[in-house]
Amino acid sequence: MATNLESYFHMSQLAYPLLRTSGVGNIVFISSVASLIHVYVGSIYSAAKGAINQLTKNLACEWAKDNIRTNCVAPWVTKTSLAEDLLANKEFLDGVVSRTPLKRIAEANEISSLVAFLCLPAASYITGQTIAVDGGFTVNGF
Fold first, then answer.
1. What is the rounded (10 degree) CA torsion for 114, 115, 116, 120?
2. Angle at 85 between CA 75 and CA 105, to 5 degrees
3. Contacts of 32 (CB under 8 A, 6+ apart)
4. Would you say 95 and 103 are in contact if contact means Cβ atoms under 8 Å apart?
5. Crossing angle (nearest 10°) for helices 43-63 and 2-22
6. What is d(CA 27, CA 42) in angstroms, rounded to the nearest whole number?
7. Inter-residue contact 89 to 96 (CB < 8 Å)
8. Are 34 and 53 in contact (CB under 8 A)?
9. DSSP states of 33-99 as a string?
10. Span 43-52, mean pLDDT?
11. 119 in helix, strand or coil?
């Protein structure tokens, strides 16, 4: 996982000169709801995703002077080809749906729509934020 975080940081550093020159640059990282609350995916995974959230905040502060915004999207379980096998497990799927207030799994376009919005001028005053796209999962108490 450290390699993944290093990749995020390295790619950001490589993009920085171009983003600064553009005058209106922005970066949108992808982490996970596991970075916000406990999920049975393992401590290392959650810690790595949490580090991405913190990198988002730090770069937002450091690069604001150059009009570069940095945000992060933290999805919950999403229907993708990578998740097909996991979602085929009825017990897992039922467990996820039962704990998600909207009672369904996210579609990939629901994640990408937020990413696209964060890149638009309409989001020009949003920076340093980690936004959960989770059907209410992270706010669902018992």
1. 90
2. 35
3. 39, 41, 45, 46, 49, 74, 75, 76
4. no
5. 20
6. 27
7. no
8. no
9. GGGTS--TT-HHHHHHHHHHHHHHHHHHHHHGGGT-EEEEEEE-SEESGGGHHHHT-HHHHHHHHHH
10. 93
11. coil
- Contact between 73 and 49 under an 8 Å Cβ cutoff? The reply is no
- Among candidates 14, 6, 11, 17, which has minimal Cα distance to 68? 17
pTM of the shown model = 0.91
- What would the pLDDT profile of 55-86 be if each residue is shown by its tens digit? 999 999 999 999 999 999 999 999 999 999 99
Residue 16 annotated as catalytic: no
For the record, the structure tokens of 78 come out as 């999403």
* Mean pLDDT taken over the chain: 93
CA distance 137 to 110: 15
Annotated active-site residue in 8, 16, 45, 125: 45
